[in-house]
Design a protein that fits this description.
Protein name: Phytanoyl-CoA 2-hydroxylase interacting protein like
Mean pLDDT: 85
Low-confidence stretches: 4-17, 69-79
Function: May play a role in the development of the central system.
Number of domains: 2
InterPro entries: FN3_dom (IPR003961), FN3_sf (IPR036116), Ig-like_fold (IPR013783), PHYHIP/PHYHIPL (IPR042868), PHYIP/PHIPL_C (IPR045545)
Distance between the termini: 17 Å
Oligomer: single chain
GO cellular component, one term: cytoplasm
Number of helices: 4
Radius of gyration: 26 Å
Largest sheet: 7 strands, mixed
Structural class: mainly beta
Organism: Pan paniscus (Pygmy chimpanzee)
Shape: elongated
Length: about 350
């Protein structure tokens, strides 16, 4: 673990010599700041009494679901982290225990290391709760670079498509004036993705069958398909962003891309949080001009999930029933990412 104060893990046998000394000040008014997906700063206040005797801080860090265990914590129970007493705030960074977008509890006690190696300790502080942040652009760029490695060659395509049940399209016509509305993205994919549960959009696919160059006739999402010409959604008036890279314990991988009309709320959301791609030159989805006509290509070796951030009117395309099967096993709805896959994980969390 890398941090500003040399944390080390301890075990019960090492802590067997912990003694009590009431004079050591108990940390209070704990503050958590500068939170990222895998780090945070912590500070607190202490009475000046016996402050000069403090040599170490014991920090008890738990995922929130385990916080009830703190009820049974006594002064002789070993802590997860030990830090040398350094000026506050102290940075906890890169610890294996920290994951993105996860709620934690933290408590602190002061300690004084004795000549014989034993510690005298204070009472535990109050328990504070906090939540780690989403992946930053830096972390997403690491994912992007991993995805580029396996994207494969580019195949030509001409339409985006969206499969749903007949009832979905009937509802859109009756209740939304014929326009499909953006909805909040589910929690599928990387746990630290900043778009999960936050970005509003409409999912589209663009993958084609290698032998036909057309969309596959099977789908996990419904037997009715809306097809729309690619230029209606992806053109010089839109921006393209990288959103995520993941797999679901399978050999094939998914890449989430976001298309947002320039200056739209979705565009502003993505601009702050996601790496922007060059629409004409990237490894996943391109829009180029040849002889005055827009030409489109998608990566062959990853499954692209494209989120369009504005409403889409059904009159801009066609709705028809597919002839293939509804393959529910391929659905990515709320799918959990495989945390052990070396291809699509980065070291800061899952």
């Amino acid at each position: 673990m890398c941090c500003d104060s040399d944390f080390v893990a301890r075990n019960k046998s090492q802590d067997s010599g912990i003694a009590e000394m009431e004079e050591l000040p108990v940390p209070h008014n704990i503050k958590i700041s500068n939170i990222t997906c895998d780090s945070f700063k912590i500070s607190w206040e202490m009475d000046s009494k016996s402050k000069d005797r403090i040599t170490h801080y014991f920090i008890d860090l738990n995922k929130k679901e385990n916080k009830n265990s703190n009820k049974f914590k006594h002064k002789d129970v070993p802590t997860k982290l030990v830090a040398k007493a350094v000026p506050l705030p102290m940075t906890v960074r890169g610890h294996w225990f920290l994951s993105p977008r996860t709620e934690y509890t933290v408590a602190v006690q002061t300690a004084s290391k004795q000549v014989d190696g034993d510690y005298v300790v204070s009472e535990w502080s109050e328990i504070i709760e906090f939540c780690t942040a989403d992946y930053s652009k830096v972390h997403l760029t690491q994912l992007l670079e991993k995805a580029e490695v396996i994207a494969g060659r580019m195949l030509k395509f001409s339409v985006f498509y969206r499969n749903q049940h007949k009832e979905y399209f009937d509802y859109v016509r009756e209740h939304h004036g014929n326009a499909m509305q953006p909805s909040v993205k589910d929690n599928s994919g990387s746990h630290g993705s900043p778009i999960s549960g936050k970005l509003e959009g409409i999912f589209f696919s663009c993958s084609t069958e290698f032998n036909t160059g057309k969309p596959p006739q099977d789908s996990p999402y419904g037997r009715y398909r809306f097809e729309i010409a690619a230029e209606k959604l992806f053109n010089p008036n839109t921006n393209l962003y990288f959103g995520d890279f993941y797999c679901m314990y399978t050999a094939y991988h998914y890449v989430i891309l976001v298309i947002a009309p320039v200056g739209s709320p979705g565009d502003e959301f993505c601009k702050q949080r996601l790496p922007q791609l060059n629409s004409k030159d990237n490894k996943f989805l391109t829009c180029t001009e040849e002889d005055g006509v827009l030409v489109y290509h998608h990566a062959q070796d990853v499954i692209l999930e494209v989120i369009y951030t504005d409403p889409v009117d059904l009159s801009l395309g066609t709705v028809a029933e597919i002839t293939g099967h509804q393959l529910m096993s391929l659905s990515t709805a709320n799918a959990k990412k495989d945390p052990s896959c070396k291809t699509c994980n980065i070291s800061v969390g899952r």
